[in-house]
Predict the 3D structure of the following.
Amino acid sequence: MSASGQNGEQSRKPIVIDTDPGLDDALALVLALRSPALDVRAITVVAGNVSLSACTGNTLRIVEAVGPASVPPVHEGHARPLSGRVARAGDVHGDDGLGGITPKYPVRELAVTGGHATQAMVELARQHGEALTIVALGPLTNVAKAIERDRSAMSGIGRLVVMGGTDDGKGNITPTAEFNFYSDAAAAKAVVRAGLPTTLVGLNVTRRTLLYKDLFHQRLAAAEPARLRSFLEDVSHPYFEFGRKESGSHACVMHDPLAVGVAIDATLVNTERLPCDVIDTPGLTRGMMLVGRDASSAAMAPAAVATEVDADRFIDLFLDVVCSG
Ligand code: RIB
Ligand code: CA
């Protein structure tokens, strides 16, 4: 495996994944749990695509499907945004968040670990400091509240990789806003303004990372164990169907998996350090990400905005890790 950080000799990077599974979250979690470059220290759950309880159940069933050698604790977080009305994405992910497959994958052994997600995130930030990467795949409610709990510890982590926003103003939940930023615009604003070492992986790059069904199924034949292979077939099917309805081809947009990919290998994207902000007032531009490329934006907080992606190398990395024997 060529991508940096993928060979087994290098030490694994400790990461926390904050997630709202979600079909693409499921693919992202499989990538993270199987990557030899990552040490998933905890998974924290936030309401987003579906309710908190549904996201929590989905997280446990995804971990069970992967069956990692070391099972990370799963902590529940916030069930509602900091402010504003609740938004869900059942039209994409199904009412159960996994395209209707949950009855086939009942949670058999795993259970939620005690302790709130934000406390777990802060404790791991204190423990690992700049060695820690936090990957946020859902609304930023938990991350914003963790910063509130201990700004110093959260500011001391190595990287915060956020799947959210977009650098081109073209939203997916509204004409101007991306779903995670729209769902909790106040939290997105607070996190972008907090000045953590943040990389924003927005729709402008994730939309260029397409996993095609034919290729996935070719490679899936080699995936082991059989339980995971069956889960991947089942969880990808509704997402490919959504892609067909949206774009006419059986391909799924790898929003959340790319954020995990960037945690594995930061060179998968080019970034520009740009002043950023998020509109959190109700109305047509709720959740819109502002990126300042002129002097007037000097007051905004700088973030590393992903502007280019090596989509082919990312898809290769994803398939090498997820579909390995
Ligand atoms: O806009 C894409 C994001 O919203 C992804 O994280 C997807 O899971 C949904 O939560
Ligand atoms: Ca998500």
Summary: The domain at 3-322 is CATH 3.90.245.10 (Inosine-uridine Nucleoside N-ribohydrolase; Chain A).
